[in-house]
Prior knowledge:
CATH topology of the largest domain: Rossmann fold
Strand order of the largest sheet: 4-3-5-6-7
Shape: globular
Number of strands: 16
CATH superfamily of the largest domain: P-loop containing nucleotide triphosphate hydrolases
Radius of gyration: 26 Å
CATH architecture of the largest domain: 3-Layer(aba) Sandwich
Distance between the termini: 32 Å
Helix content: 40-55%
Number of helices: 19
Structural class: alpha/beta
Largest sheet: 5 strands, parallel
Amino acid sequence: MTTNGIETVCLLLVSREPAVLRPLCSIAESNFWHLETAGSGWEAMERLQAGAVPDLLLLELPGSDGDGLHVLRWLRRLRPDLPIISISHTDDAERKQEAIRLGAQEILVRPLEERQLEFTIRRNLSLAPGAESNIRSEDAELLGDGTFFVGTSPVMRKLRAQAKLLAQAQVPVLILGETGSGKSAAAQLIHGLSVGCGLQLLRVNCAALPSHLLEEELFGHGRELRFAPARAGKLELCGKGTLLLDEIVEMPPDLQHKLLQVLRSKQLARLVGDKPIQVDVRILAATSANIEIAVAGKKLCEDLYHHLSTFTLHVPPLRQRKEEIPLLLHHFMQQLARHYGLPPRTFSPAVLEACQRYSWPGNLSELERFVKRHLLMQDSDFASGQQPVLGGMTDVGDAFSRLAAPVVPGASDSWELASVPDSLKSLVQSVRLETEKNAIAAALKKTGWNRKAAARMLKVSYRTVLYKIDRYHLRPSTATQFPEEHILPGNGNPFKGNGKLG
Length: 502
C-alpha cells in the first residue's frame, strides 16, 4: 500500500474485541502502519476476493469455535503468500499444532503482550515476499530494550555461531572490537542464548566512573554509619546472572586485583564489615583498546587478562561488513522515526552508494547519528539525495564526517575556524551554541511550546526544531500547554525511549 509516495504496511485484523484491537491500534499508530478490521473470517475472505492486498493478516481463533480453523484453511488457499498470525484464547497445544498445519505462521495466546505482538508482526512482515527492505528474522534478533543483533555478512554469521557456542559454557569471555562496533550487543546475544537468559544481565562502564564510585558500583559497601543501610554491588545483585564489564582496561589497577580475587575465591567482602558473600556471576568483559598493548603497558593486570580471556570474541568493524549497511540504515530509520514521532524517510540510491563507500570510523554509533541527521535535518543536501558537497568539501568521507558529527551552529562557516587556536574555536562555538539554545527556548516560550509555530518564527524546518529540542534537552514547564500539536500516547514525551544497536 502506498500513501503520499511512501510504502505503508497494511494489516488486516479479523476481530473486533477491544482486548485485541487496542494494543494493535497502538502498535500500528506508532509504526505508521495502516490497520483494517473484519468482523469475521468470512468477511475477510470476501475482502481478499474483492482485491484487498494486506501485507499480513491476524486471525482470532475463539476458544470453542471450530469455524476459525476452517476459515484459516480457506484463507490459505485464497492467498498462499499472505502471512497469517493466529490469536488463540487458550494455550491448547493440539489446537496450535493444527493451526500451524493449516498455514498459520505463528500462534499467539491471549492476553497479548504489546511488545511481543509487535516483534512477531515485524518478524513475519520481513518474511513476506517483496519485503527485501526489511530485516529478516534470521538476520536480526531482538535482544531487549529495542536492541537488535544483525548478522547478514559472513563475519557476523560466524560471530553469532561462536556466541552460541560460548553461551553454553559458564566461562568468562573477553569481547574485543572498535568503539561503536557492537560489543554490548554481542554480550547481550551471548546472555540471551544461554540457559541463564532469564537471569539478570547488568552492565558497568569502567570508564564512566571515578575509582571510589566504581568500587561501590561493583562491590557495594557495608554499614558505615549507624543508620546507613548496606548497599549491594553489581557482583552481588547479578546473582547467577551475567555482568558485562565495559572498557575493562580503564578499571584502576587496585580494583582489577580486587576483582581477580573475588573471581578466584567466588566470595565477596564488602568495603566495611559484613560476612563474605558467595558470588557465582558470569563475567563478560569488553574493550576497544589494543589488548596486547594494554597488557604490556600494565593497564590491564596480566593475571586478570588470562582469567577473562579463556575465550575471546572479536567484533568486526562496520567497514568489514558493509553488506549489512542497507539493513542497518533501515533499522535505525524505523527506530528513530518512532522515537521522534515522525514518518520514516527513504534513502536515495546515491546516498546508499555513498554509505557503502564510506569507511565509518565510528562504526554503528556514527551510522546511527547519520540516520538521525537524515531524518531530522530536512534542509540537508545529503538527506535530499544530492551529491554530497558540504562546506565546499567534495570528498565522500569528509561529507559523511560532517553529516554524522554533532550539529554545530553555523556549520557552513565552521571550516573558517580551522586555523584558529582550539581554545578560541571552542569559545566561539560555545557562544554560538548558547545563543542558539536561548533563541529556541525563547521562541518555544513565546508560542506556548507550539513547536510548529516556533519553527515558523525561527524560519527553520519543524524537524530541525525537534532535533534542537532533543540536543539541548529543552523541556516545557508542567503548566505549559501544547496547542495544535499531536501528543504521543503514553506520557506525551516524544523523546522517551531508544532503539540502539549496540
